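I am writing to request your help with a piece of structural work I have in hand. What I wish to show you is a protein chain and, alongside it, a tokenised description of its three-dimensional fold. Could you please explain, in whatever detail you think fit, how the structure tokens follow from the sequence? You will find the record immediately after this paragraph.
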Amino acid sequence: MEIGTDAFARQVTLEFTGVTGAVFEDNFFDLIPGQKRTIAVRNAAGGSALTVRALNSEPIRLVWKP
């Protein structure tokens, strides 16, 4: 999955709603404006609703389709 931002995002965190055990290639990272980052989902643990959070922004919820 590729994520990007048009504003600085501090400590970006990915999680599947209501699921424990999901494994992402990377988690808890910063993004600068215009930067894009590709993150592999190694184990979705059955999750289908992905939430992307950052300390300085509101959460964004997405539908996950592997």
Observations:
- The chain has no helices and eight strands.
